[in-house]
Amino acid sequence: DAGVTQSPTHLIKTRGQHVTLRCSPISGHKSVSWYQQVLGQGPQFIFQYYEKEERGRGNFPDRFSARQFPNYSSELNVNALLLGDSALYLCASSAYGGSGNTIYFGEGSWLTVV
Amino acid sequence: QKEVEQDPGPLSVPEGAIVSLNCTYSNSAFQYFMWYRQYSRKGPELLMYTYSSGNKEDGRFTAQVDKSSKYISLFIRDSQPSDSATYLCAQRLVGNEKLTFGTGTRLTIIP
Lengths: 114, 111
Description:
The complex is a heterodimer.
Chain A: E1 5-7, E2 10-13, E3 19-24, E4 31-37, E5 44-50, E6 53-57, E7 64-68, E8 74-78, E9 87-94, E10 104-105, E11 109-113
Parallel strand pairs in A: 2-11
Antiparallel strand pairs in A: 1-3, 3-8, 4-5, 4-9, 5-6, 7-8, 9-10, 9-11
Chain B: E1 4-6, E2 11-14, E3 19-25, E4 32-38, E5 45-51, E6 54-58, E7 61-66, E8 71-76, E9 85-92, E10 100-101, E11 105-110
Parallel strand pairs in B: 2-11
Antiparallel strand pairs in B: 1-3, 3-8, 4-5, 4-9, 6-7, 7-8, 9-10, 9-11
């Protein structure tokens, strides 16, 4: 079975541009979360979506937005890119079925802002 | 104060040694404790998942949670060069999907 898949794997953008990152969860998983991992740091929670509704939001500016589609895939959008947005963006999925559900991560999308 | 503190290392040990990795946390409401392994330029991979206090063993890996001291540990026995990676501790609340990670400890096993 396919794991969490993310695209693109690498991309380079210029300051001020916009970027869209995509994620497909594990088949049967209805919850998708997004994390930002800056080099040398642990992942930081950005958003969680379940059944197309936002269920959690981390401490990130309004330039960051996300959505979840009926097939449970998700997009993360970042507007007005800053150099500090350069990071590994990770998508995670879970079944969200109750206590102990495991959260699985994808390989991430490497974003470089120049 | 960060919610989760983890020594970033780097930590280098000889092959076959026992490795001890640790985290402390400040939020006593955390109930689920995890260890993820992350190879260079890859996504985190779940190693161990523990609910509340106690020990859990899986092969060469043992996870310990001491909620009274807010301290979690991961032990790796008979360490192998393939264990060289960054190890991330993470915590979450009951009914909450948000994971709170430590900084990660970079581990190198020397053949």
